[in-house]
Design a protein that fits this description.
210 residues, alpha/beta, Metallo-beta-lactamase, Chain A, six-stranded mixed beta sheet, globular
């Protein structure tokens, strides 16, 4: 499975394009602004069929490009605890002093803790990791040893808990019990910044250690 990362506006959010050239299939993790315009030429050039857009959570910087995927018939996956965020993505912008843009997402599949879905011929496990916001989830591919965690955990950092729906104690519990319980060599792909591993964060993350 190939993983390509694109840091996209408006505040440098990672979108991850996962693909399998043998199957000619792809999946996108998160849909920041201009995500469709960024990956559509790649899909066309490589003949890849985009099977799904997986949303780690409902904050605007991860979802602002989502309507393009709705319009193109790409199935969208997200957690129902962030339903209010998905239904009014544009309104979140004004809270950060940014111009309002209308953006309402249609979620086709609600995911839940412990669920498994088949993507790219592989099993993808869902873990609910709230605390940054109510509906943050991670998408874990055990065969590949890769976890896409949204804004729950960063390399040397953790997600903000001062936004609406955030809770510090909940986030600590999520990290310890649902991220740090993954194998130490699991690659962690966060919503912002660089890739890390579970083992590195358990040993050296200044906010939460095992």
């Amino acid at each position: 499975m190939q993983v390509r990362v694109f840091e996209l506006p408006p505040i440098g959010t990672n979108a991850y394009l996962l693909s399998d050239s043998n199957r000619k299939e792809a999946v996108l993790i998160d849909t920041p602004q201009s995500a469709w315009q960024t990956i559509a030429p790649i899909l066309e050039k490589e003949g890849l069929d985009l099977k799904a857009a997986l949303l780690t959570h409902g904050h605007f910087d991860h979802t602002l490009g989502g309507e393009d995927f709705n319009r193109n018939g790409i199935p969208m996956y997200g957690h129902k605890a962030d339903a209010a965020l998905f239904s009014d993505v544009g309104a979140q912008l004004t809270r950060f002093g940014l111009p309002h843009l209308r953006c309402v997402l249609q979620i086709d599949h609600w995911v839940s803790e412990g669920q498994s879905i088949e993507l790219l011929g592989r099993t993808c496990q869902i873990r609910h990791v709230p605390g940054h916001c109510p509906g943050n989830v991670l998408f874990y591919f055990p065969e590949e040893g890769k976890a896409f965690v949204g804004d729950a955990l960063f390399a040397g950092g953790i997600g903000r808990t001062d936004l609406e729906g955030g809770d510090y104690d909940t986030l600590m519990d999520s990290i310890r019990n649902r991220i740090y319980s993954l194998p130490n060599d699991t690659e962690v792909y966060p919503g912002h910044g660089t890739t890390t591993t579970v083992g590195i964060e358990k040993q050296s993350n200044p906010f939460v250690r095992a």
